[in-house]
User: Which sequence fits this backbone?
């Protein structure tokens, strides 16, 4: 069972990396089994994980130093929802839009269907902070995708397919917003 969870995290890491949603050593992934969180090690390469890169600890235990710096946020989400799967990624188009918009409203049908709108949450310290953990625990019930300004997303749910799909749809929607803006600028120039 434990091996199965670790194997699934390895697989999810590869998919997240292949989708271009994380850089070489960025992002992190976790799963909850009973009272135990399984999470990627700090600095691990999500596209090239092995089972040794996965650290475990219980919800009430002190977070081990080897665990991802975002463990505090993962734990806050598990504590406030019934979710069992979390991914944290840095999708470039979403992060870019988070710098200039307070909420991102998808233009494409799929994005609208899955997400409706994506609020942008600001934190003074956006990485591995108590502040982000507090934001996450207060909004996680309402939002499966939590976008932190200038940093990235936390997506939680009850299967890898669910969380990976939400992350991928959100980034595609952000990309479509950029493409649409470019087309609009282009056609304006053509009319001159
Ligand atoms: Zn991050």
Assistant:
């Amino acid at each position: 069972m434990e091996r199965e969870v670790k194997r699934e995290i390895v697989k999810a890491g590869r998919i997240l990396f292949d989708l271009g949603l994380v850089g070489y050593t960025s992002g992190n992934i976790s799963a909850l089994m009973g009272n135990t969180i399984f999470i990627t090690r700090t600095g691990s390469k999500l596209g090239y994980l092995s089972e040794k890169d996965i650290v475990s600890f219980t919800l009430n235990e002190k977070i081990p130093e080897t665990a991802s710096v975002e463990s505090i946020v993962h734990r806050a989400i598990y504590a406030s929802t019934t979710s069992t799967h979390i991914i944290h990624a840095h999708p470039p188009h979403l992060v870019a839009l988070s710098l200039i918009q307070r909420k991102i409203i998808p233009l494409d049908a799929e994005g609208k269907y899955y997400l409706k709108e994506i609020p942008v949450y600001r934190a003074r310290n956006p990485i591995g902070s108590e502040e982000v953990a507090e934001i996450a625990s207060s909004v996680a019930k309402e939002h499966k995708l939590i976008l932190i300004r200038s940093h990235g997303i936390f997506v939680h749910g009850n299967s890898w397919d669910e969380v990976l799909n939400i992350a991928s749809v959100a980034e595609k929607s952000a990309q479509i917003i950029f493409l649409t803006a470019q087309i609009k600028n282009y056609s304006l120039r053509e009319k001159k």
Notes: The first helix runs from residue 2 to 18. The mean pLDDT is 95.
